[in-house]
Amino acid sequence: MATHLSPVSETGTPRPAAVANVPTPPQVAVTAPRVRDPRLDFYRGIAMFIILCAHVPGNRWTGWIPARFGFSDATEIFVFCSGMASAIAFGGAFAKSGWWLGTARVAFRCWQVFWAHIGLFLAVATTMAALNLTGAFEKNYINALNLGHFFGDPAPQLVGLFTLTYVPNYFDILPMYLVVLALMPVMMGLARINLWLAAAASIGIWLLANPYIVGLGPAGVALPAEPWSERKWFFNPFGWQLLFFTGFAFMKGWLPAPPVSKWLVLAALGFVLLSMPWGSWKVLTWIGYWDPDLKATVQSHLPTIKEWRHKSDFGPLRYIHFLSLAYLGWVVAGEGGKRLMASGASWAARVWAVLLNVILKVGQQSLAVFVFSMWLARMIGWGLDQTNRDILTVAAANLIGFAMIIACAYVAAWFKSHPWRAKRA
């Protein structure tokens, strides 16, 4: 079919005769750069600071982390936000390149997380061994992390480490994250058939880890953590995948964003406040000072909800508590995170703008920051062992730790920018 072109250009000027009848090349669609949601990076960044505090041995500041005021804690923030980030990072690969290449993209990430786990373990174990070998400290740092079996009989433990059948305490978050990532191709495949099928699979797997919910007994499906005992992974991936895929579903649009409603706000806030005595020994202690009888009543009922608040298998009370907090955080941040953004020229606005950018950077580099912070927490703990752990010393240690994970985030971002590549003119 012949193409008829006007001898007048789009600007209204006459076309040169030589090109008046030459077809113009098709317009190339320009894809706008993807804009990161500041809410995701903000809350994930906050979780990184909390996780550092929580892993410093004998840290006074852990008395004020979210885990001391309810059922859920920073782990839920990390897993939920990881699900949302995975929907952005990997969901597009499935949509654009198909299931097989999407699966390959996830497999590559699993490979990265696996070696991050191995590297973290070896770095921390080597550091603890080095501290012991100095002979300058009374504390046995190897035993403090329950690594005696590893150093006493390393051959089977090395095999277990690489097959994830030996997952020591303190090193159990990344293996959980790895297994949950490996479930993503399964969920994406089921979603191509029917979204309800994917939802049923996620809920069904969660129920396998928490069979008491449907009356099938207390023992659920779990993975072995060490060959010499019956201990299971502290973070059961079959339970925690529900939270991961909840975040994934929200970011993919499989679940609609909840409406901003004062009744939902009140319901979420009410659950968070009323659940405090049941999920927090700290709040329960405060209640005991005010009303010992009320404390005794709450304590008498705690055994009945033990499994429902269980952290390892991600009990339902933790799920409801976190969703309530997440909803409140979502409302507070505003549409697109507009309430997080600094406005105005006041000194407070300028300070908040700088602080916000720092938190966002930490959230954007969460894997590198997390791995570094787990090693750093042990070193901060060692440093505090050499002091009397007074308030000022502990505060200084935490603030130095914060500065170091911030530096880690900026260094990781610098390397990811590939500064050695020649820039085009």
From TrEMBL:
Residues 1-12 have a biased composition (Polar residues). It holds the Pfam family OpgC_C. InterPro entries: UCP028704_OpgC. The keyword Transmembrane applies. Residues 13-22 have a biased composition (Low complexity). The chain crosses the membrane at residues 41-57, 77-101, 113-137, 195-213, 233-251, 263-281, 316-333, 391-415. This is OpgC domain-containing protein. It comes from Aliisedimentitalea scapharcae.
